[in-house]
Write a structure and sequence with these properties.
The protein is α/β, with parallel strands linked by helices. It is 33% helix and 24% strand. Helix 9 links the parallel strand 9 and strand 10. Helix 2 packs across helix 8, helix 3 packs across helix 5 and helix 6 crosses helix 7. It is elongated. It binds S-adenosylmethionine.
Length: 380
């Protein structure tokens, strides 16, 4: 990759998945990948940035750095933004935009206020050029801008995703406390499941862990078929984009026969939602959902991998009820899953004790702000 074609960018990641995210970025061709808190920075060619939008499963968003400038306060921010890009080229008044801000700088401690300052600089610049200004659109903007204030430096980036990348489009139906798709994909990646042995989720909810696992094994690109903000960028290269779309399509393993992927869900309505999601993801016949409690079911011939995100009991009173569930789950795996691996997402260490098993690995991850552990048990 020639230096002149190199872009600096940041992938925003779920907390705890920084290392896994870096791995994924490198495998897809990013260079100089370095973990940050809840993010990773990297260098990429434009082709690689397009590829990441189409194929990366772990990031929430990908931010392409466009300019950075010293920022000691509101005036620096206003002037810096006006000069940061050739706005005549990048932001015509017919385009809507939005601005998100993270971090702080001297006199700029409130991200909402900083975002207003960026907006004012942009619309003033537009009025000077065209005598009119863009409208703001928070839902589906034509240009999505991101400003990061890092003490005395401001970094202006473009968000190429146009809405969080965790929304794959297959989840019409939500179960109770669903995992985000990118977190689910990261957990599967951490489990090391590679599509060669059975995968079972005994408390499968809306089926996200199984769906993300199947999509990963089939190498189905999560971004194919969706619209991206980057398609509206002034320097968008449609041929290059098309090439990357074709490349992503060709990776799909069409004739791969996967081992059994099985979900068990005791709430019949939630089980039905899982089936709807599976169909929407094009995975009918690949994942089976059974109604009822896992205690009533047998596992397919193994050994294989169990993945599980049981309820944590955030509300008072629930914990006691859940003690029984965790002790039943412990009994179930010890009796029926000898030789299997179990990966369990725990948001409550007291409950996990009820399994009566010792975890061999504990990986900290955050699930929607809840401090969790992705626990690994080798079942003897
Ligand atoms: C936290 S949710 C799982 C969420 C899932 N990972 C998702 O993203 O949709 C836990 C699920 O376990 C189910 N459940 C609880 N006890 C169960 C049991 N004994 N057998 C099967 N499912 C059970 C609940 O109905 C609930 O849907």
């Amino acid at each position: 990759m020639g230096r002149e074609n190199r872009l600096s960018a940041v992938a925003v990641l779920p907390q705890g998945l920084e290392a896994a995210g870096c791995d994924e970025l490198s495998k897809l061709g990013a260079h100089e990948v370095r973990p940050l808190r809840r993010a990773a920075e990297f260098q990429a060619s434009m082709a690689c940035l397009y590829r990441l939008h189409l194929q990366a499963r772990l990031p929430f968003r990908l931010l392409r750095e466009m300019a950075s400038f010293p920022c000691q306060g509101r005036d620096d921010l206003y002037d810096g933004i006006r000069r940061a890009l050739n706005w005549e080229r990048w932001l015509h008044p017919s385009m809507s935009f939005r601005v998100d801000v993270t971090g702080s700088a001297p006199g700029l401690n409130h991200s909402h206020y900083s975002a207003l300052q960026v907006k004012n600089a942009l619309v003033d610049q537009q009025r000077d050029i065209w005598g009119e200004r863009s409208s703001i659109d928070l839902e589906a903007p034509d240009l999505s801008l991101h400003l990061h204030l890092n003490r005395e430096t401001a970094v202006l980036s473009l968000d190429g995703s146009g809405g969080s990348l965790h929304r794959r489009g297959y989840r019409a139906a939500m179960g109770v406390a669903p995992l985000k798709e990118n977190l689910a994909a990261g957990l599967i990646q951490l489990s090391g499941w590679d599509g060669s042995v059975p995968l079972v989720d005994p408390c499968c909810g809306s089926g996200i862990l199984l769906i993300e696992a199947a999509l990963m094994a089939l190498q189905q690109a999560p971004g194919l078929g969706r619209n991206f903000g980057l398609e509206g960028w002034a320097d968008f290269q449609s041929e290059l984009w098309q090439e990357e779309c074709e490349r992503a399509q060709q990776r799909r393993r069409r004739n791969l026969n996967l081992p059994p992927l099985l979900g068990i869900e005791q709430d019949p309505l939630v089980a039905e939602q899982a089936r709807v999601n599976i169909a929407a993801a094009g995975l009918e016949g690949v994942i089976e959902i059974r109604d009822g409690s896992f205690t009533e079911h047998h596992l397919p011939a193994g050994p294989g991998v169990l993945v599980c995100n049981p309820p944590y009991g955030q509300r008072i009173g629930e914990e006691e009820e859940l003690d029984h569930l965790y002790s039943a789950l412990g009994g179930f795996v010890r009796e029926r899953a000898s030789g299997w691996q179990l990966w369990l997402l725990s948001g409550n260490p007291k409950l996990t004790g009820g399994l009566r098993m010792k975890a061999s690995r504990r990986i900290p991850v955050s699930n929607g702000g809840i401090d969790c552990r992705w626990l690994h048990y080798a079942i003897r």
